[in-house]
Amino acid sequence: MNKHDQNLFAALVHEHADMLLAFIRATIRDPATVDDIFQETLLITWRRFDDYDPAKPLAKWLRGIARKLILAHYSRQKTNPVYCQDTVLQVLDDRIDYIDQKPGDSWNDKVFALSHCLDRLAPSLRQCIELFYHDARKTEEIAKVLQCSREAIKKRLQRARRVLAECLRNQGLFQAIATEDKP
Predict the structure, then answer these.
(1) pLDDT at 179
(2) Which of 64, 65, 71, 153 is the residue whose CA sits 20 to 30 A from 84?
(3) pTM, whole model, 2 decimals?
(4) How far is CA 52 from CA 30, 39, 129, in A?
(5) Residue 6 and residue 32: Cα distance in Å, rounded?
(6) How far, in Å, CA of 27 to CA of 16, rounded?
(7) What percent of the chain has pLDDT over 70?
(8) Vertex 114, ends 105 and 103: CA angle to 5°?
(9) Around Cβ 26, how many Cβ atoms within 10 Å?
C-alpha cells in the first residue's frame, strides 16, 4: 500500500470508527472483546484494503468483516445469542446503513442527535436506558436497583424507546420501527 492509500485508509477508518464500534457493541457486551473485534476488523481491512471496491460503501464492507468476526467469536464460545444470529446481524447492518444514509454530515452528528434526545428523556426513563444499554444490566437487576418490578422496568424501557424514536423521527433521522421488542 502506497503512502496515498495509507492516508486514505486512515481518513476513511477515522470517519467510520464510531459507527463500527456501535455495530460491534450492539452484539458484544464484553468491552475487551469489543476492542479485540474492532482491532481485528481494522487489521483485516488494512491487509485487504487493495480488495476494497471504492464504488461501494466502505461502512458496509467494514461491518461485513466485523459480522464475520462476531459470528466466529460466538462460534468459539459455543453460544449464539438470539441477537447475534446472522439474520439479526443483517437487520442491524441494514438499520445502520439506513441511518448512515439519512441527513447529517457524519455518524457523529447522528450520535449527537441521539444524545440530544437522551437528554430530553424523563430521569426515570433515562436511568433505565443507561442501566440497560450502557451498563448492560438485565431487567431483573435494574428492578432491584430501582426497587420496582421487572414489568415496570420493561414498560419504562419500552416507553423510553418510543420517546427516543419519536424525537429522532422529528429530527428526520429515524423511520418508524417497532418499539414493542422485549428487553
Answers:
(1) 41
(2) 153
(3) 0.55
(4) 29, 18, 37
(5) 27
(6) 18
(7) 77
(8) 30
(9) 19
Q: What cell was used for 78?
A: 459455543
Report phi then psi at 175, rounded to 5: -85, 160
Grid cell, residue 178, equals: 417497532
Q: Cα Rg for the chain, rounded, in angstroms?
A: 18
The rounded distance, in Å, linking the Cα atoms of 20 and 126 is 24
Per-residue model confidence (pLDDT) at position 178: 41
Which regions of the chain does DSSP assign to beta strands (E)? none
Please answer whether residues 155 and 149 qualify as being in contact, where contact means their C-beta atoms are separated by less than 8 angstroms.
Answer: no
Burial of 8 (0-12, 13-18, 19+ CB in 10 A): middle
Q: Which residues of the chain have pLDDT under 70?
A: 1-5, 79-89, 98-108, 173-183
